[in-house]
Amino acid sequence: MALIVQKYGGTSVGSPERIKNVARRVASWRAKGHQVVVVVSAMSGETNRLIALAREVQAQPAPRELDVLAATGEQVTIGLLSMALMDIGVKARSYTGGQVRVLTDSAFTKARIVSIDEGNIRRDLNEGHVVVVAGFQGVDEAGSITTLGRGGSDTSAVAIAAALKADECQIYTDVDGVYTTDPRIVPEARRLETITFEEMLEMASLGSKVLQIRSVEFAGKYKVKLRVLSSLEELGKEGPGTLITFEEDIKMEQPTISGIAFNRDEAKLTVLGVPDRPGIAYQILGPVAESNIDVDMIIQNVGHDGSTDFSFTVPRGEFAKAMAILEQIKSHIGAREITGDNKITKVSIVGVGMRSHVGIASKMFRTLAEEGINIRMISTSEIKISVVIDEKYLELAVRVLHKAFDLDQVPA
Length: 412
Ligand code: ADP
Ligand code: ASP
Ligand code: MG
Known about the structure:
By secondary structure, this protein is an alpha/beta fold. It has helices at residues 16-31, 46-57, 63-70, 72-87, 97-100, 119-126, 153-164, 197-205, 213-221, 280-290, 319-333, 360-370, 394-404, and strands at residues 3-8, 35-40, 92-95, 102-104, 113-116, 130-134, 137-139, 145-147, 168-173, 194-196, 226-230, 242-245, 259-275, 298-300, 307-314, 337-350, 377-381, 384-390. The protein contains 13 helices and 18 strands.
C-alpha cells in the first residue's frame, strides 16, 4: 500500500463529466489499496473569470480581497469532486487550504507556504477516506485567505506530498507528460520518459507552464517523487508519463539538449547614452527594484567616448511602470534617450548534457541566423542558453531549434 498525492488541473476538472472521470480514476487507485490525497485546481477558465470580475469592480483589485475571491474557484471543485467520489461509493472528505491549515506568509496573490499541518489529512486517510484538498490556497497567521500565484495548485500538491512523506506525487494534466517543448507549438515534440530536477527547474523558470516553478523547487528540496501524467487517457490504458529524476539516478548518456522553453511575458527597456562610470547599473536598476519589478536579463554595451547603452527585460505587465521610472530618472542619470519594446520573447534551450559538450551556443545562433532571426539579447548558465528575439519569430525559432537539436528523434 502506498500513499499517493494526485493533483488534477483545470482542464481535468473542467466539467461535471470530467470530475466524474477523475473520481473514477481516484477510485481505481483506492481499489488497489492505496491511500489517496487529491489536490484540485479550479475548473478551467474559472480563475481567469474571477480575476476579470474583480477588475470590473476595482481597476487594481486589493490583493487580500482578490485572494478571497480567487480561492473560491478551488472550493467549488473540492465540493464537486467529493460528491462525485461518494456517488460511486468512495468515502471522501474535502478541505480548503485554511481547513487543512496550509500556513503561508501574507504576500497576497503570491504567498509562500510556511508549514502544513497534516493532522486532519492523516486522520481521514486512516479512517479510509480519500482526502480532497483545494490547491492554490492557504491561510496566513492572521487567518486571511491567501493564494500561491498562478499555477499554484502544483505547489500545493508537492508541498502536501512532502509534508505527508508520500510515496509519489502525480500531476495529472491535459498532456501525457513533459515534452521536449510545448506540444501546442511544435506537433513533433516528444514526451520525455524522464527529466532531471535541474532541467525541469530551468524549463519551468524559463516559461514552460506544465509545472509551476515552486512545485519543482519543493520537489527538489524534499526529494518528492514527482510524475506528470494525463488525466484524459482512458482508465487502465494510461502511459507512464514523465518522471522527474535526480541526476545521479540517470544511467544513460544524456542528450545534449533536453528541451526548449519560451516565455512571451517579456519586455525590453534600453537606456541610451548614459555616462560609462561606476555605479550606473545601480542608479538605473535600483529604482526599478525598489518598485518591486523583477528584472530578468541585463546587458551593458562596451562604452564609447565615455558613454554606454544599458538594456534589461521585465515582465510585460510591468513594462509601462518600468518605462515611467526610467523617464523619471533620465535626466538625473544623464541618459540621452529611453527606448522600449514589449513585443519580444525569450527562447531557451535546456539540457544538463551541455556541460560536457562544446559548440551548443554556436549551433543555436547559426540555426537562428539561417532563418534571418535577429538575436537581441543572450544569457547563459551551465545548463541553458536563452536568447531574446522579436515575438513574431517565436514559433519559427522554436520549431527550427527543435529540429536542429534532433529533439524530434528518439535518442539512440
Ligand atoms: P493544468 O491546468 O493541468 O495545471 P497547465 O495548462 O497549467 O495545466 O499545463 C499544461 C500545459 O502546459 C499543456 O497543455 C501544454 O500546452 C503546456 N506546456 C508548456 N510546455 C510544455 C512542455 N514542455 N511539456 C508539456 N506541456 C507543456
Ligand atoms: N486555479 C489557479 C490558476 O488558474 C491555480 C492552478 O490552476 O494551479 O492559476
Ligand atoms: Mg498548471
